[in-house]
Amino acid sequence: xxxxxxxxxxxxxxxxxxxxxxxxxxxxxxxxxxxxxxxxxxxxxxxxxxxxxxxxxxxxxxxxxxxxxxxxxxxxxxxxxxxxxxxxxxxxxxxxxxxxxxxxxxxxxxxxxxxxxxxxxxxxxxxxxxxxxxxxxxxxxxxxxxxxxxxxxxxxxxxxxxxxxxxxxxxxxxxxxxxxxxxxxxxxxxxxxxxxxxxxxxxxxxxxxxxxxxxxxxxxxxxxxxxxxxxxxxxxxxxxxxxxxxxxxxxxxxxxxxxxxxxxxxxxxxxxxxxxxxxxxxxxxxxxxxxxxxxxxxxxxxxxxxxxxxxxxxxxxxxxxxxxxxxxxxxxxxxxxx
Length: 338
Hints:
Number of helices: 1
Shape: globular
Largest sheet: 8 strands, antiparallel
Order of helices and strands: EEEEEEEEEEEEEEEEEEEEEEEEHE
């Protein structure tokens, strides 16, 4: 993944700064590094929480799901990170987390995990197929948020934002419905509860960061005024990943587009003929040189070399789990053990 690349397909006027097609993964703006949108239509599970291939039918073609790097359970076995944060928003399905600090969690159904890699952590992200009598679809966003140089070597940790703690603002009039889920950065003046506090060493916790991560759902034909941001240096990106067309202050934009918009005034969004979903990423840039190599994001190439050396020597902690791809069994519900 190459962070901080924003290629403009065309320069726009008025509220739109630029429009680009969504790639794989999605290119983002500083302070974000990249965003991955995972969607997999896994079949019913077997006794080992992997895919039961005997139950694959015409409704669940094999081409629509991937095993990633797991040998049995889909997911991402143990791998290291340093120098940034991952924010994992699970829309559907389940994620089993295990890490080199000895912490673990199972989350899904709208839950969000905020992992600060800091000076180094190893974690596994597995997707157990808990349902044996029906398919196990999975949808999640994973956003990489940079850490400034002063905080790249902070102590690693993770924090859970459970779905019922995350505020949602709903405007509904007849068939016109807008739902805004505020994972970080609240909507002002609408009387909603504030989002959970981000980790203390995150760029999101800096009062100058003006950070916001929202998921916006807009019904066909509905309109909504996107409020201005508070910071004068803030940048805002609308990742329009689901839907056909969207009018942004009168400018028509096709689906599967990354739209940077101005932040100083209200911006009117008017949806087209089908349901639309937008991931909004907003923040004040950190403005530092970024060197990313694989799972490490630092400021210099020497720091990347040091990260690899430290990982070889220390493994970033003690991996106490019996395998590199641990899951939390077929029965356990959502939980977090820190």
